[in-house]
Amino acid sequence: MGVVRTSRGDWIEAGLRALAEGGPEAIRVEALAKRLGVTKGGFYGTFADRNELLTAVLDTWEREAVDDVLAHVEAQDVDPRERARLAGVLTLSADRLLPVDLAVRQWARRDEAVAERLRRVDTGRMDFLRTSIGAFCSDPDEVEARSLLAFCAAIGEHFITVEHPGRTRAEVLVRAADVLFDGPR
Length: 185
Hints:
It is a single chain. By secondary structure, the protein is mainly alpha-helical. It has helices at 8-22, 29-36, 50-74, 80-92, 97-108, 112-134, 140-156, 169-182. The chain has a domain at 58-182: Tetracycline Repressor, domain 2 (Orthogonal Bundle), CATH 1.10.357. 69% of the residues lie in helices and 0% in strands. The mean pLDDT is 90.
């Protein structure tokens, strides 16, 4: 009977879960091997070292958070306003992507290479918002302002703990999106 190898994808998935739960410090070979129920020796048959795994984890996050989300949104037959809303929901409300995204943001505060990658991801997200909002708003200054406000609301919503008397958080977020994507009533 041959030896069953833990796949590269399994190691990356375990790394993503560890990142979401405890930051980059939680991505330790021994801990991941234990989580996967294997010995750490198998890791070195797949990756040269921990840094290679960290890069693969970030590559996967970037692909899923930008490329996969945008491909899914582009495949939908909806107007630009709904595309922008859907991208936000898929990116920052998803059980899988949100915890990793927040962990990457924290990591980027102390690692310039991660910060550069985060800038690239956020720039891609902002470019998508600019294009979506630009489809119904012709003033470039307003497009930029609405895009920034939409992005700030999507990120900040996870950090702001304010109450909304007489309204639920969900109601306020829906109304905020209406203001950003439809304009004032």
